[in-house]
Amino acid sequence: MELNSIKDAFERVAKKQKLCSSKSQETVDQVGHEIEQALATLQSPQDPSIPADQKAVLTELKSKLNAIGSLKQLEGPHKELNSSLVKYQKLLEKSLNPDISKAYRNVDFDTHIISQIIASHFYRQGLFDLGDNILNEAGEPNATALRSQFLEMHQVIEAMRARNIQPALTWVSANSEKLAQIGSNLELKVHTLQYVEIVQNGTQADALKYSRTYLARFAESYKDDFQKLMGCLMYIRRLENSPYFELLSPIHWETTTEELARQFCSLMGHSYESPLSMVFAAGVEGLPTLLKLANVMAAKKQEWQEMDQLPVPVELGKEFQFHSIFVCPVSRDQASEENPPMLLPCLHVLCKQSILKLSKNSTRTFKCPYCPAETTVAHCRQVYF
Questions:
Q1: What does the pLDDT look like over 4-24, one tens digit per residue?
Q2: For residue 323, what are the contacts with CB-CB under 8 A and spacing of at least 6?
Q3: Of 33, 196, 320, 367, which residue is most buried, by most CB within 10 angstroms?
């Protein structure tokens, strides 16, 4: 992969630079040491009544400096470093094409959706004024609900980071049923943070009252967690010296705050990660492949923008895969809405276009490419992932 070769080349240049710097410093230290010794001899003669022979001292110094060969010692490493830098520059020019417009493909985007995506990206970061300006310039006055949702989320998150848990408690209580429906234990986590604070700084009566009011209903569904929390009652104000001391770790606040942000976005119908950030990151990862494809197609005098499907796969990491992908084992085409996966009675799956070709456009029965079973198009069923 090109990025890996660039990284390897950079590491080689960095290694050469460190070696050159080390060698240069060693040579400079040797020269400095000899000069300091010569100065000491000139300034401190053995017999104060007899002045030092300056000419002899300087002649000896010159002889020692010539023996060190400082110029030659500095030239070698610097030449190697310069050579590596030149090669690295050529590799960058060859691998990194500054004209990324070659990978651009004309797409009719919905400008309203794009404006909301950009604004929501800034809202996620708490840059509400910037998001407002984007929407105002785009003529999107009806996005106040989007702003208010992210504003509430940021207020709750900022309060959590300041160890003010009350806004989070209010939010999880108001959304208790929705959180339970998606199987989230966020409400228990938030109440656990408050309960631990009471155990560490309050009284046993306060902790017991809080557990009965807010934690008792989790006793069956989260039995192990509930038993651990009840065990804390034996160590009021000395939890750090108990078997449950790890509950005091700041990591619980950090992970609960992150989980709170995730569930907040989920209940709003938004992804936790900014769609704009994800698209940009995916584009950066896929850009080298697209640029290479554009160059190859240009050399063959073909226009890749007119293709319905890319002729090469664009490999992206798992973090960019949001749904199942089916590739027809016969045509090697990726399934799409126009060419969906179809289940044969023999339980093998092919894409619709492959089935139509095998059946001569539904005019006859056909044999499954992977087993002896025969069937017709009418007996095939579309598969939904």
A1: 788 888 888 888 888 888 888
A2: 385
A3: 196
- For the chain, what are the domain ranges? 2-94, 163-268, 322-385
Which of these CATH numbers, 3.40.50.720, 3.30.40.10, 3.40.50.1360, 1.10.8.60, describes 322-385? 3.30.40.10
Give the model confidence (pLDDT) of 182-204 as tens digits.
Answer: 888 999 999 999 999 999 999 99
Report whether pLDDT(107) > 80: no
Global pTM exceeds 0.85:
no
